[in-house]
């Protein structure tokens, strides 16, 4: 009885622990779908997804493929600690995660020196963009880095909000839906440090600029500008805050979204643009273009009696021309007329109302689409690899739209689903190839896998001369009357017999009810989709009238002049159609992906309401189908469900066999063979390769895991209850297997040894601590003596503490003069370090200074040398930027510019010139060129002042704007010195002195200035202080200048 009762208690505890482990597996499901027993059952697949989703386990594997379910809430699984947990860990050692896939891809790139790519797919709202952000963040945090690489990582991360603002929009399915495909290459050097990046964009949904479905919005940037832009900016762009005032923003009837803060997102975008490398001027030009699109949408037309069209919103058109930087009359002409070329002759033909509206919308789409392409190019410039290396490797990230099935599917959905067909074809091909290569490497016979090959659908779409895209191009180019219906008829004649193509005309009675006369149906690998042909030809043509291109080519906006090249107008060759362009870019993308080792992330949205915790089985089943997950699982399970390297398998399961525990000293393959024979594996359940064991059935693996769990539980319980048992009692419980009893004894020996070692370590640490305290106190007593054994530890500690404190408190700016106080022994070294650090900060600061800002600073330095502590108004000018010119180009008379000829005006400003007799004020323009200055009265040059002849510049010391340009008295052409007044006297005199190279010729006169009148006579300007500025003739015939008191 004394033996049986404790054994019975131990048996009950073991059963409880084992049942708990099995219940946990049933509750959370398997973390790899390959281990599903019924892997052909879609219901079992979805039930496993549901179980894991319910437990907030949003990641699951299918072999090396990661399936991610959007939780629609923040989970505490993305911290830096989590990144470190997955860093350098084998792919299957811990639970599935996006970080595990990221790290596995990174390590494969480093060890195999082969380019990698991660393909992220899923429908809108499934979390593709968030997945790509998490991957980029993982690399930014965990990869080795330096200052330059930190800047690059920051640029990579900051490019996301910018691209989202210009390329994402609110749709019915997703509040932040990417309306373009994105492929990003991240380049790494031989050390594994990110050194560059490059982005390719695909098929921006330009039609969204001019039309949105009900409940959807235009691109985010329009709403961000209106909600977040300050009042001065909106006044400059002639915009109002209410988005309802703009026709391009009201069609979806959804100006506000509760989950989106346009104002906060605007701040994020404006903060990100300078980080990526945008100058203030480029940002302003970019915003001008965004505003011009809104004004373009508000441009309205009227129709005359003869059918000709005219613009009814003249003010709107003037603002539009100013923002686009084009001639207003030319723009009006181009919006209401088109230019035709026939037999070498050009003809201008008026547009009717519908054509004018279409031309306006085409211009809006072209301007926005090409600007987006320029934006991507600009980001690429900031991410570009500065120094090319042969040893660099690449990880590519493909974040592209998933399969789309809407109520109304058009040209965009056709292109998107064609892209997904190609990606599915690539996915299956690469997965099969990877499986076959692994089997061949391990010397295991490859079993043929039956799967659906979607090449037949890809050929239907892309085949030359016979595919849908070729037929669409042919119909667009065919002379005569063409329309969308004629395109549908051509499809019926050409591909009508194809088993994956159906129209209303070709369908049977049951199918005709769901396919209208304007639709054709394609049987995709993911299911059936009806496409409405209305708009197919127009969207494929994607043409802009030639005269509109000519107008845009002449834009003063550098972004638009880059987007609309003059060669495009000169070249008579017709550009490729939109579908063909997309097909060609897709082919190049396939080549890029085929050249890399792929990893996959399949994203799933659990419900359409974006609610956390809700799992819509019908919606999930639909996505599982069109993502091809069951097909992938069947390919992965066609042979063996589980495979592991010999060393990993033996290390994990060696406690299950007395011959392999605690260590196996022979060949690994012999150890694995011994272990599986002991466990009773049958021949059909496993195969041994050259370096891996392949297990066919998940049940075999689960049985092995349960046995390991039993051993672990038994050991723990034996340790807890060891005092109650004798060796005989263990034998009764275990039968003839004494191995576990021996194992228990070994465990006790190890535990006692470990406890003793820990106690000795604690005692040693106490002795070391006491010795350290003694040395520290002794060093403090001898701290003022020369360096000696008694104080060496204390002085070393003081130096170390100072340097450590210095490292954490180094000045961050050249203006920060603070510096920690050093100990007496480090005064000289501290001063040397301070100078080195200041020099380093100055060098870094100078390298970051832009050319425009450098020019501004040089002018400010010269102004300081001339006016500091000399003129009362100088302190007020320090914070004000010097402008390139105070006169707009149109303010300078064209006749004056022609008179100047090749001498271009470098600076212009309005001044008041005072006559030498009577001091009558006359308004003038002072224009500075590289070699001389001129005073202009409207259309006439009144006086020319050569810099070489300039004798000096005199300025008063008070706050007035008077200055005198002294001319040589012997020059008969000159009428005497020029007496001028300007509100920007500091700026004018500085620029004039720098251009004339006569900064030392500027004189600051505190009381009065003498100047020369004609025939050698002198005049005098007297300066006094007063309550307000006043310039008048004084009592003695002097010019009296009363300067306002500033303080």
From TrEMBL:
Pfam families: Myosin_head, Myosin_TH1. Its main location: cytoplasm. One of its GO terms (biological process) is endocytosis. ATP binds at residues 122-129. It is found in: Cytoplasm, Cell cortex. Keywords: Actin-binding, ATP-binding, Membrane, Motor protein, Myosin, Nucleotide-binding, Repeat, Transmembrane, Transmembrane helix. Residues 586-608 are annotated as: Actin-binding. Residues 29-709 form the Myosin motor domain. This is Myosin motor domain-containing protein. It comes from Amphiprion ocellaris.
């Amino acid at each position: 009885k004394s033996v049986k009762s404790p054994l019975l208690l131990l048996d009950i505890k073991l059963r409880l622990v084992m049942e708990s482990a099995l219940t946990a597996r049933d509750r959370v499901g398997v973390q790899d779908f390959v281990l599903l027993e019924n892997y052909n059952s879609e219901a079992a697949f979805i039930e496993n997804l549901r179980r894991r989703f319910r437990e907030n386990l949003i990641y699951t594997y299918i072999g090396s493929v990661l399936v991610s379910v959007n939780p629609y809430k923040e989970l505490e699984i993305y911290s830096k600690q989590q990144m470190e947990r997955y860093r350098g860990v084998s792919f299957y050692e811990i639970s599935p995660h996006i970080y595990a896939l990221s790290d596995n891809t990174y390590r494969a790139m480093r060890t195999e020196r082969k380019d990698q790519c991660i393909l992220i797919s899923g429908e809108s709202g499934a979390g593709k963009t968030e997945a790509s952000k998490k991957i980029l963040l993982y690399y930014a945090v965990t990869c080795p880095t330096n200052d330059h690489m930190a800047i690059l990582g920051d640029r990579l991360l900051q490019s996301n909000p910018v691209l989202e603002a210009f390329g994402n929009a609110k749709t019915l399915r997703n509040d932040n839906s990417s309306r373009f495909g994105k492929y990003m290459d991240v380049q790494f050097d031989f050390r594994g440090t990110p050194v560059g990046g490059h982005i390719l964009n695909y098929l921006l949904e330009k039609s969204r600029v001019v039309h949105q479905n009900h409940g959807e919005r235009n691109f985010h940037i329009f709403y961000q500008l209106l909600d977040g832009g300050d009042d001065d900016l909106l006044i400059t762009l002639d915009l109002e805050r209410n988005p309802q005032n703009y026709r391009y923003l009201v069609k979806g009837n959804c100006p506000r979204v509760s989950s989106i803060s346009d104002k906060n997102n605007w701040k994020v975008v404006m903060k990100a643009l300078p980080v990526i490398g945008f100058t203030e001027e480029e940002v302003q030009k970019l915003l001008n273009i965004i505003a011009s699109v809104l004004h373009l949408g508000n441009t309205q037309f009227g129709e005359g009696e003869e059918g000709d069209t005219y613009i009814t919103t003249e003010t709107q058109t003037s603002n539009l021309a100013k923002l686009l930087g084009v001639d207003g009359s030319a723009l009006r002409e181009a919006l209401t007329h088109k230019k035709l070329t026939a037999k070498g002759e050009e003809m201008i033909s008026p547009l009717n109302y519908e054509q004018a509206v279409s031309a306006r919308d085409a211009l809006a789409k072209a301007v926005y689409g090409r600007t987006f392409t320029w934006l991507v190019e600009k980001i690429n410039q900031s991410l570009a690899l500065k120094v090319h290396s042969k040893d660099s490797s690449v990880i590519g990230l493909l974040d592209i739209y998933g399969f789309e099935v809407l109520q109304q599917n058009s040209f965009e959905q056709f292109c998107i689903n064609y892209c997904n067909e190609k990606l599915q074809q690539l996915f299956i091909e690469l997965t099969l190839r990877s499986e076959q290569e692994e089997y061949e490497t391990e010397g295991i016979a490859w079993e043929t896998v039956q799967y659906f090959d979607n090449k037949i659908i890809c050929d239907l779409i892309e085949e030359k001369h016979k595919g849908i895209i070729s037929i669409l191009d042919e119909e667009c180019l065919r002379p005569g009357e063409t329309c969308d219906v004629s395109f549908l008829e051509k499809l019926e004649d050409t591909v009508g017999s194809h088993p994956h193509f159906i129209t209303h005309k070709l369908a049977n009675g049951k199918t005709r009810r769901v396919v209208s006369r304007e639709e054709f149906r394609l049987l995709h690998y993911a299911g059936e989709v009806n496409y409405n042909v209305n708009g197919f030809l127009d969207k494929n043509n994607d043409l802009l009238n030639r005269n509109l291109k000519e107008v845009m080519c002449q834009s003063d906006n550098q972004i638009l002049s880059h987007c609309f090249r003059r060669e495009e107008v000169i070249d008579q060759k017709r550009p490729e159609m939109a579908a063909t362009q997309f097909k060609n870019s897709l082919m190049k993308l396939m080549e890029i992906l085929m050249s890399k080792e792929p990893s996959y992330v399949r994203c799933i949205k659990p419900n359409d309401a974006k609610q956390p915790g809700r799992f819509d089985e019908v919606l999930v089943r639909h996505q599982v189908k069109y993502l091809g997950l069951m097909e992938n699982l069947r390919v992965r399970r066609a042979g063996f469900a589980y495979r592991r390297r010999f060393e990993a398998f033996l290390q994990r399961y060696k406690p299950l066999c007395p011959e392999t525990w605690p260590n196996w000293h022979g060949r690994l393959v012999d150890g694995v063979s011994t272990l599986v024979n002991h466990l009773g594996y049958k021949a059909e359940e496993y195969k041994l390769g050259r370096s891996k064991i392949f297990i066919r059935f998940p049940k075999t693996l689960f049985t092995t895991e349960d046995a390991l769990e039993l051993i672990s539980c038994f050991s723990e319980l034996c340790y807890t209850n060891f005092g109650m048992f004798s060796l005989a009692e263990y034998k009764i419980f275990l039968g003839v297997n004494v191995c576990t009893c021996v194992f228990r004894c070994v465990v006790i020996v190890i535990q006692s040894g470990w406890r003793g070692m820990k106690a000795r370590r604690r005692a040693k640490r106490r002795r070391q601590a006491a010795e350290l305290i003694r040395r520290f106190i002794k060093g403090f007593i001898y701290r003022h003596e020369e360096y000696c054994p008694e104080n060496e530890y204390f002085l070393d500690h003081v130096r170390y503490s100072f340097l450590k404190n210095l490292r954490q408190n180094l000045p961050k700016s050249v203006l920060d003069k603070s510096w920690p106080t050093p100990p007496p022994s480090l005064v000289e070294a501290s001063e040397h370090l301070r100078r080195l650090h200041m020099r380093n900060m100055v060098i870094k600061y100078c390298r970051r200074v832009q050319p425009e800002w450098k020019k501004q600073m040089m002018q400010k330095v010269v102004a300081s040398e001339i006016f500091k502590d000399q003129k009362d108004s100088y302190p007020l000018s320090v914070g004000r930027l010097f402008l390139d010119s105070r006169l707009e180009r149109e303010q300078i008379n064209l006749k004056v510019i022609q008179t100047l000829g090749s001498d271009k005006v470098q600076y212009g400003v309005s001044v008041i010139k005072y006559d030498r007799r009577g001091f009558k004020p006359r308004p003038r323009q002072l224009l500075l060129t590289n070699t001389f200055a001129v005073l202009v009265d409207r259309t006439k040059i009144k006086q020319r002042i050569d810099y070489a002849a300039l004798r000096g510049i005199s300025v008063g010391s008070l706050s007035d704007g008077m200055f005198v340009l002294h001319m040589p008295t012997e020059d008969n052409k000159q009428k005497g010195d020029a007496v001028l007044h300007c509100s920007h006297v500091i700026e004018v005199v500085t620029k004039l002195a720098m251009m004339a190279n006569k900064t030392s010729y500027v004189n600051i006169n505190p009381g009065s200035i003498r100047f020369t009148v004609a025939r050698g006579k002198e005049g005098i300007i007297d300066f006094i202080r007063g309550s307000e500025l006043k310039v008048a003739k004084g009592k003695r015939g002097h010019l009296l200048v009363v300067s306002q008191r500033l303080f």
